[in-house]
Amino acid sequence: MGFFSPHKRHANKFNYIPRYYDPAKEAREQRRAELRGERMDQNEEEYTPGKYIKAKREAREMRRAQEQQEHRADKRTKMWTMGVGLVLIALFIYMIVPRLGAIFEMATTDKALREQAQQQLEIEEFNPYAPIVIVPNDYEEGDELEIKDIELE
Predict the structure, then answer these.
(1) What is the C-alpha R_g of the chain?
(2) Burial letters for 82-94: b for 16+ Cβ neighbours within 10 Å, e otherwise?
(3) Element (H, E) at 24
(4) Alpha carbon distance 9, 73 (integer Å)
(5) Of 24, 33, 100, 144, which is the most buried if we count CB atoms within 10 A?
(6) pTM to 2 decimals?
(7) For the residues of 75-118, what is the DSSP string, one character each?
(8) What is the secondary structure of 125-144 as a DSSP string?
């Protein structure tokens, strides 16, 4: 019966010895290095598990932090530029636009005044309902004529 046996079976184990790794030789080299004053722990050539992953992670974190600082600086400059632009636009509206409005108003009022003056002249030239002014013909030949401009109101 395979369920209850007095002998304990172990899982299949392999007797694997790596070809290129000799722990005795490595221990010997480490002892010699310590005797010479060199420490193998201080050499960065020796690989420790996770060494490259940790270095990549730290480099990535530093790069991201630097990018965030640059992004913040870019944001500040953009905000200052927009603020200055808005101030300039406000000054333009406050100072220039009323003057432009006054120029257009003067142009329209001058045009309206000219039109009114033209209409007044046309009315003064011929008005069939205006009373006729009779001027006596009391000059003699050889007398000089005096022509006076009469301003009409």
Answers:
(1) 55
(2) eeeeeeeeeeeee
(3) helix 23-36
(4) 69
(5) 33
(6) 0.32
(7) HHHHHHHHHHHHHHHHHHHHHHHHHHHHHHHHHHHHHHHHHHHH
(8) H--TTSPPPP------TTPP
